[in-house]
Amino acid sequence: MVERERILARTGGRPLNRIVYTDQQIAERVREIGRHITDFYPEGADLLLVGLLKGSFIFVGDLVREIARPLQVDFLVTASYGSETVSSGEVRLLYDPGAEVEDRHVVLVEDIVDSGTTINRVIPLFEKRRPASLEICTLLHKHLAPSLVREPRWVGFDAPDEFLIGYGLDHSENYRNLPFIASLRQATD
Ligand code: PRP
Fold first, then answer.
1. What's the CA-to-centroid distance between 177 and ligand 1, angstroms?
2. Cα-based torsion angle of the residue sequence 159, 164, 168, 174 in order, rounded to the nearest 10 degrees
3. CB atoms within 10 A of CB 88
4. What is the pTM of this model?
5. What angle do CA 156, 154, 127 make, to 5 degrees?
6. Which entry of 62, 114, 170, 189 is annotated as an active-site residue?
């Protein structure tokens, strides 16, 4: 399938502004991050990756297969955006992971750090549970947050300030299945 058809088949014909990161660029970067995480932890570390749903579901799926260590996976469900393209500044916790956190090496896995609201809300919740260590891995980082309670240790890409979709990221719950990351052409363009 040629590129244009491949895209339009998945967007229902809606054109995109541009592809920001291709499937290949993402795969290569995820492999690199997987290697860095593998090298970071001492042998025998009790490693727990906690993905923030829904946006991180594809990233987590790909990332854990690139980490050459025993690990466990859980998820956290938060919601902040509603159907708008700007952050509402509020984060609701909809599902708390069942996994034990105390004395474990925890990596929170985000698809994107945008306003930083989600990280700033979730990190203190985990700190209270006394993990052995707590790190953040995010595929995309916009570097817009005025202050983050903790900077991500692993960042896939320093992302442009555009509305990004695909590879798990949505607009009104659509486009999560794009295999690449694109910016969305807005109705006013
Ligand atoms: C998005 C995204 C991040 C968060 C980042 O999630 O997946 O989790 O917002 O934005 P912030 O830094 O401004 O908090 P969203 O709440 O839209 O839910 P989703 O993961 O289900 O798409």
1. 16
2. 180
3. 13
4. 0.90
5. 135
6. 114
